Amino acid sequence: MPALHRVPWIGRPGKDPETRFGPNGKKAVHIRLAVSNCWKSKVGQAREYTEWVNGKAWERLGEICQPYRHKGSFI
Fold this sequence. Notes:
Helices cover 9% and strands 44% of the residues.
């Protein structure tokens, strides 16, 4: 049995969520999230790194979160 890993991400969507339907009719909302990390280097210079994370919300959870998530909002 595969393990389920949950990771909390905090960031901003790069575009509005996309709604798709699978072959069996299941609804899925796809969100592409920009997650940034800021720190200071050893010499004191500010650094920032942005990573893009893909996420999905299935069925009812997707219906709940889709109207409140749009490009640039904070998640």
